[in-house]
Amino acid sequence: MSKKNNPVTQKSGLSTNVILTLVVVIVAVVVIGGVLLFNRGGGDSGGSGASQPPVAAEVLRKPDSHVLTEAPDGRVTMVEFLDYQCPSCHAYYSAITSKIEKDYAGKVTFVTRNYPLEMHPLAQPAARAAEAAALQGKYKEMYHALFDNYANWAVNGQEVSSDEAKANAEFEKYAQQIGLDVNRFKQDVASPNVQTKIDQDVADAKTAQVSGTPTIFVNGRQFDQGNAQTYADVDKSLRQMLDQELAK
Predict the structure, then answer these.
(1) pTM of this prediction?
(2) Three-state secondary structure along 94-156?
(3) What is residue 126's three-state secondary structure?
(4) pLDDT tens per residue across span 213-244
(5) Number of domains, the chain
(6) Other beta carbons within 10 Å of 72
(7) Has UniProt tagged this entry with the keyword Ribonucleoprotein (predicted)?
(8) Which of 51, 131, 191, 194 is most buried by its number of CB atoms within 10 A?
(9) Is the separation of the CB atoms in 12 and 130 below 8 Å?
(10) pLDDT of 125-158, one tens digit each?
(11) Distance CA 115, CA 16 (A)
């Protein structure tokens, strides 16, 4: 994760052991539907979206950016910068964004961008797997496979995994399951074009002053969790922001 504070988790800057302890607790909380304070990866959370000027649309979304859901009217766009190995990104996905993806389908355009953090050794390989799948028109399927199977490749017990060989074997399995040409997938994972795409996402994240993951923008304004203390609070706050934009 990155370097901002997320009212519902804490950022990295914490020791690996502390973060991984949070991972275990967070996953348990998501599973049982419980409530917990948590930190975002690698930085403070949100930032004050209301007080900061909006980030230019061309920074947040490129013509080749990946879209999970698209609204025909294009009035509201939500952009998330994420790290596939980030425990907070997985927690957000499980408790918040996967539900928003379904509930706001056709109403909100949901764009995802890469921001793999150096503290997560498998974040880059996972991003490459997602981008390689995109070259065969299966980005959305790989995005879901990576987060849905997070426990199988991203962590090793209570530790963040650094086993790239195991992770790549898992990614190839997902590629087969979602109907990709696996040989082409393996070639694309290692291609310069895929890495260039990830590097562009990271450059845009820095331009947008992203310092932690997940970081979400709604119509250019960074989502601020405020005093939210639970996943339910964050979900409610984000939905309120989306609904306000939809009502304009």
Answers:
(1) 0.84
(2) HHHHHHHHHHCCCCCEEEEEECCCCCCCCHHHHHHHHHHHHCCCCHHHHHHHHHHCHHHHCEE
(3) helix
(4) 999 999 999 999 888 999 999 999 999 999 99
(5) 1
(6) 8
(7) no
(8) 131
(9) no
(10) 999 999 999 999 999 999 999 999 999 999 998 8
(11) 19
